[in-house]
Sequence to fold (495 residues):
Amino acid sequence: MAFLQDYSTGVLICTFILLLMLYHLFTGSRNEPPGPKPLPLLGNLLKLDVDRPHLSLLEMAKQYGSVFTVYFGPKKVVVLAGYKTVKQALVHHADEFGDREIMPLFHDFTKGHGIIFANGESWKEMRRFTLTNLKDFGMGKRTFEEKIIEETCHLKEEFENFEGKPFESKQLMSYAASSVISAIVYGPRFDYTDPQLRNRVDRANESVRLSGTASVQLYNMFPWFGPWIQNWRLLMKNLELDIKEITDTVEGLRQTLDPEDLRGLVDSFLVRQQTVKESGEKDSFFHEQNLIFTVGNLFVAGTDTSSTTLCWALLLMAKYPQTQRRVQEEIDGVIGARQPLTEDRRNLPYTDAVIHETQRLANIVPMGVPHMTSCDVHFNGYFIKKGTCVFPLLTSILWDEEEWESPHTFNPSHFLDEQGRFVKRDAFLPFSAGRRVCLGEGLARMEIFLFFTSLLQYFRFTPPPGLSEDDLDLTPLVGFTLNPSPHKLCAVKRF
Fold:
């Protein structure tokens, strides 16, 4: 009996010591960024809205300043808030804040390969290769524009098939954006009825949604829970199907490869593989895993960001019909009935302002993609250790009250001067900045402009019968990116 009492006392003492160690570990040194006091193991979870953590972090920034520390469970994170602070870190201290924090879920997705959730020489080589080939295949040039214009024609036909009746636009927008990526990566586009395209888009949309759920965020904090979390199991199932599909498609392209007639980025990668093999080079980064995950990264990122932005844009047009009418009057006056082109942007200042304001207000990647410090950093008077996870809080830039006159309302005038001319704003950073800026920014900007102007030229978007503009809800869905809540709109032909 005495032995059991001594054993129990020993366990209690050890537990107390462990809790003290965790507490001191959490509180850190005096010159580290401030933040709320964490609880052992739970960190600051009780102070966070795990469904919408970016809003909780915005409130914390008001109390602790533009550089502060918060604990997602046992995970220490330094948050950067506000335009000036984020730009200073990502642009002026690009090397120090330039690594990627690869959280457990991101590691599950890519195992450190590809171009988004990777670091070191492999990431540099894959990013350099991808950028070079996107430019070679026409990013920012007429050839890219032609692929997107072709897709706008298919999308308009799909919208027209609804004959002005209510429908959800998310899937069709995703099909269009994914088909553009297919044309760039593989060569041919996919028809919207193709089961491969439909399944890929459905899985991608589901994975983006699941990645932002509370249970998956808890998995990132406590990865040993993985096998018991249903959403994590669904994500791994989707990943397995994605890998098989990409592998099969790549193998088909390999069998029909003609080095003198490259169809897309995959062909370029396969040719580089052959060159490396023939040269006898060892430890090359041009291996199958980098190919598979680079292709996967391009499809998910290229499909979700553009389609989500366009869904927000159409919803806002239906919500604010006066803005929609003004956009259409400008398009009618400048373009008329011909196909909109990228070069028209400079003559459509109000339309361009509406697109930029949509991206600003929609704030679709609110916390950015996590960074990690590559070395010890002295920043804004604080010491941040090497290997610290850093959140560049993009919400705090796009909604920065010091940068925007009415940050929480839809106001295209943010991007117009008194004469109605378009004005660039330094704090417009929806694609982030620095070494990790979105490499598909040029493609996304062209896609969004051409799709938006083509659709607004041809259709008037309204709420379904029986609903008013006030009934359209702008509350976003929970997810890694912020999509509009499920809704239907009517696309009414203008002529």
Remarks:
- Residues 1-21, 23-28 have pLDDT under 50 and may be disordered.
- The radius of gyration is 24 Å.
- The longest helix spans residues 288-319.
- The chain is about 50% helix and 5% strand.
